[in-house]
Amino acid sequence: MTDAPDDATGEGGATRASSSRRARLVVAAVITLALVLVAGVAVGRLTSPTPVVPGDHSVEAGFSRDMQVHHEQAVEMSMIVRDRSDADDVRTIAYDIATAQAQQAGQMFAWLEVWGVPQAPSEPSMTWMTRPTLDGSYGDHAHGGATTGADGSATPAPSHVPGEPMPGLATAEQMTELRAADGVDAERLYLTLMIAHHRGGIEMAEAVVARSDDRQVDDFARGMIATQQSDIDAMQQMLAARG
Questions:
Q1: Is 237 a member of any domain?
Q2: How far lies 92's CA from each of 41, 68, 162, 177, 230, in Å?
Q3: Total domain count for the chain?
């Protein structure tokens, strides 16, 4: 009588074992991100007391809502590439980005709770970026020329159109492409998309710095700018190394 093949020691068994290990790693990473998000909420609650509480239509509330959405996509992109790449450099920076932005999203969620304003926006996304900067202008004059004020004088045009996609966000088609990619192709696409994503995040952070005199929001945004610029520098080197 011929013995039945032992799949546990064959190619099929090895494949199943590899898939099982990868699944366990993904679950562990998701649990870690959930814990980081909770920690971010706690930090946001502890650091939120301010003399003047931002209102529902404030620059600070708009930034906090929109940047949460922006960060959530960065976390998703980073978790996707970690499941499709074996490269230590990409997996490490993806994990760092995912954990940092999950924590920051939790912090901004907590700010909105402490401020007593809804998490859901009551106006189109990025409306806060159309509001005047602290110096009375609209900041980025490059996005569309000047308009004419009531007195006939020229005033700078807003830097972003409310309701349009946030700066740097990957499109649905790009996200689908990233999910379908593997290996070096996934790494190149992730790095390309995340560099653009970080640049968009920096644009939003610079916009809130120009418009808010809230100390905690200002410190948060300036720290985010520094961190994401450092990430961009590292990712550009990784991308260059991959041709």
A1: yes
A2: 24, 22, 35, 21, 14
A3: 1
Residue 49 structural domain: 22-123+166-241
Tens of pLDDT, residues 93-136? 999 999 999 999 999 999 999 999 999 998 999 999 999 999 98
**Measured distance CA(238)–CA(234) in Å, rounded:** 6
Residue 203 lies in a domain: yes
pLDDT band at 166 (very low <50, low <70, confident <90, very high): very high
Pick left, alpha or beta for residue 66 (phi over 0 → left; psi -120 to 50 → alpha; otherwise beta): alpha
Is residue 139 packed enough to be buried (19+ CB in 10 Å), middle (13-18) or exposed (0-12)? Answer: buried
For residue 234, what is the domain's CATH number?
A: 1.20.1260.10
What whole-number distance in Å separates Cα of residue 203 and Cα of residue 192? 17
The whole-model pTM stands at 0.74
Environment class of 57 (CB within 10 Å of its CB; exposed 0-12, middle 13-18, buried 19+): middle
Instruction: Give dist(CA 100, CA 94) in Å, integer.
Output: 10
Q: What's the CA gap between 218 and 210, in Å, rounded?
A: 9
Q: What is the C-alpha separation between 190 and 80, in angstroms, rounded?
A: 9
Cβ contact 138:157 at 8 Å: yes
- Residue type (1 letter), 181: A
90: in domain? yes
Q: Which of 224, 202, 204, 187 is nearest to 59 (CA)?
A: 204
